[in-house]
Design brief:
Blueprint (H helix, E strand, L loop, with lengths): L3 E6 L3 H11 L5 E7 L3 H11 L6 E2 L2 H5 L7 E4 L7 H10 L2 E4 L7 H14 L3 E3 L7 H12 L5 E9 L2 H9 L12 H17 L3 E9 L30 H5 L7 H9 L6 H10 L16 E8 L4 E7 L8 E7 L2 E6 L4 E6 L14 E4 L5 E2 L2 E2 L2 H4 L1 H13 L11 H20 L3 E2 H6 L3
Parallel strand pairs: 1-2, 1-4, 2-3, 4-5, 5-6, 7-10
Antiparallel strand pairs: 7-11, 8-9, 8-17, 9-10, 11-12, 12-13, 13-14, 15-16
Helix pairs in contact: 1-2, 4-5, 5-14, 8-14
Length: 439
């Protein structure tokens, strides 16, 4: 098959992550241009692919002014900066790998879907959970009929306290006006996954949630605006920036440090400067965040199938996603930090009654890789999975089950927006009516 050439628009964590995978697959991919306003990030991609200076730009407008110089484009800018470059890329005839969410409003999401369909280009939204071993296997077991017809799904998105503080209190997704609602930013993954596993249209949505803890009224008396200024609660506060960002063995590691400093290889001096001057150094009770810290979404699908999603900050970090699928003949449970699927067949005695286990456990923790790229890296292998999938898709040879059409992605995003309407207005939203009013 043809090697696919691409351009990268936005060389932050997600764009760089996909690009690094592609760099390890030189027979399949070559990135030939980059647009990124932060020089050290732009230079990282330039050096990684030996891109000529004439194809390196500070903004997306300049790279698209060159016309169509590659087969596809990766759009990995901030949430509220997806639409314009995506529409321009579509106009020029690029296929797209588009980082989720498509856009921060339902109207813009629909606009991208409409434009792609009209132009006839492929837009693959980064629903990376579809490409992991755990959820791809779950889809296969459901499709096999082993547990009968699916009646309901229960899902838990364990954000984690420290991840919440980094990304959604101090970080780029803390404020709806600057990015998007928490449900869209964090859980369009999960909503998409639920719909994909059920395989039917969502008919009704209801949601509740709020911001309870990370607010100024909860700021401890006598605590400074920045942790680094000598907070008297530093020893006991789990959000203290020294624990999260400073030192070789800090909790956040390189990911937190790169985000805080906006540098690919930050020094400890860079980190300290960022914590004294930037957004990541603030007390978590003294930020301009407004997104929820916990939320529940109730869903009804065609045929009366139901599902619920709980998103909460108040879990241990790196806990993975938990899920139970209830069928007419059995049930499935995602367990073991997304490494195992427990299959219960109704009518069999369970281990509570027998010393030996009767229920089946499917081990999906195998360390597959391609060209030395570990399956455990990047969303449990989902980042690798989607990169391999788009190679086939953009060559018109994809035969898998994970890629969604841009229309399907839009409709699953619409569930998130409908949930927000329900949460704010205390209503049950009917999806056909909701979609009909989006222009």
């Amino acid at each position: 098959m043809k090697k696919q050439t691409g351009i990268l628009v936005g060389a932050g964590s997600r764009g760089t992550g996909y690009s690094k995978i592609m760099n390890k697959l030189p027979d399949k991919f070559d990135i030939v241009g980059v647009a990124e306003p932060i020089e050290n990030r732009r230079d990282f991609i330039k050096d990684l692919f030996n891109i000529d200076d004439s194809k390196c730009f500070e903004n997306w407008q300049d790279i698209f002014a060159q016309g169509k110089i590659a087969d596809f484009a990766i759009i990995a800018t901030q949430d509220n900066m997806h639409v314009e470059p995506a529409l321009k890329a579509i106009e020029l005839g690029y296929n797209l790998l588009l980082e989720k969410p498509i856009a921060p409003t339902p109207e813009e999401c629909k606009m991208v879907a409409d434009a792609a369909e009209k132009k006839g280009v492929k837009v693959v939204v980064c629903h990376v959970l579809r490409y992991t071993n755990i959820f791809s296997t779950l889809k296969d077991v459901i499709a096999s009929g082993e547990i009968g017809e699916v009646m309901s799904i229960e899902a838990l998105e364990s954000v984690g306290t420290r991840h919440m503080s980094h990304s959604y209190v101090r970080g780029n997704w803390r404020n709806e006006g600057e990015s998007s609602p928490m449900l869209l930013a964090k859980c369009c993954h999960d909503i998409d996954l639920i719909q994909w596993l059920i395989g039917k249209e969502c008919t009704k949505v209801q949601s509740f949630g709020s911001l309870n803890i990370f607010k100024k009224e909860n700021k401890p008396e006598g605590s400074p605006e920045r942790c680094i200024d000598g907070c008297p609660y530093a020893d006991t506060c789990i959000y203290d920036t020294k624990k999260l960002y400073q030192g070789e063995h800090c909790f956040g590691g390189d990911w937190f440090k790169r985000a805080a400093t906006r540098k690919m290889n930050p020094t400890e001096e860079d980190v300290e400067k960022a914590l004294r001057e930037g957004q990541y150094g603030r007390c978590v009770y003294n930020c301009d965040n407004d997104v929820v810290d916990h939320q529940v979404v109730n869903l009804e699908f065609e045929g009366g199938i139901t599902a619920s999603l709980t998103m909460t900050a108040f879990t241990k970090d790196s806990n993975g996603r938990e899920m139970k699928v209830f069928g007419t003949k059995g049930m499935l449970e995602v367990i073991g930090d997304n490494k195992y699927i427990n299959v219960t067949h109704f009518g069999q005695l369970s281990k509570e009654y027998w010393g030996d286990r009767i229920d089946n456990t499917i081990d999906v923790s195998r360390a597959e890789d391609d060209k030395g790229i570990g399956i455990t890296t990047g969303h449990g292998g989902g980042d690798l999975g989607i990169v391999l999938a788009i190679y086939d898709e953009f060559n018109d040879a994809y035969k898998g089950k994970s890629i969604s059409t841009v229309r399907e992605s839009y409709l699953n995003h619409a569930i998130c927006f409908a949930a927000e309407e329900s949460r704010h207005n205390d209503t049950v939203v009917r999806m056909k009516e909701y979609d009909a009013k989006i222009k």
